[in-house]
Design brief:
The chain is mostly helical and about 120 residues long. The protein has a domain of about 80 residues. The protein is about 65% helix and about 0% strand. The chain is elongated.
Length: about 120
């Protein structure tokens, strides 16, 4: 085994990289916990940066941490606004039923909206 592979810094950076990728994968699947994992490992990356002398990583930790925090806040707002279906998936708009009014050419709503848009453009 090469010397660099036997150092604690190598293994710590590998574990942190795997944790970060796991967080990104989960976030890509729509799970807010992915952003939480990414944010949670940033202090460990900061300690690693200081111990290993890679001070440039501190700026990276700050940038990544900011992105993770913004996405946690944004996604939490979206989840509470969207709600969950019985299967646990987000649903932005409810399924239309007979009691909901829908726009069609017959009721003239589309024409009224088009006229309002033309007036607003002037």
């Amino acid at each position: 085994m090469p010397y660099w592979a036997s150092t604690p810094q190598f293994w710590l950076s590998l574990v942190l990289a795997v944790a970060g990728c796991t967080g990104i994968i989960l976030a890509g699947r729509g799970k807010v916990v992915g952003w939480v994992i990414g944010l949670a490992i940033q202090p460990v990356w900061a300690v690693f940066a200081i111990v290993s002398g890679g001070y440039g990583l501190l700026l990276t930790c700050l940038m990544y941490g900011t992105v993770y925090w913004i996405n946690i806040v944004k996604w939490r707002k979206e989840v509470t606004a969207v709600g969950l279906t019985k299967h646990g998936h987000g649903e932005i708009l409810p399924e239309p039923d007979e009691t909901q009014k829908t726009a069609s050419k017959d009721d003239g709503l589309l024409e009224d909206l088009a006229k309002e848009n033309e007036d607003a453009d002037r």
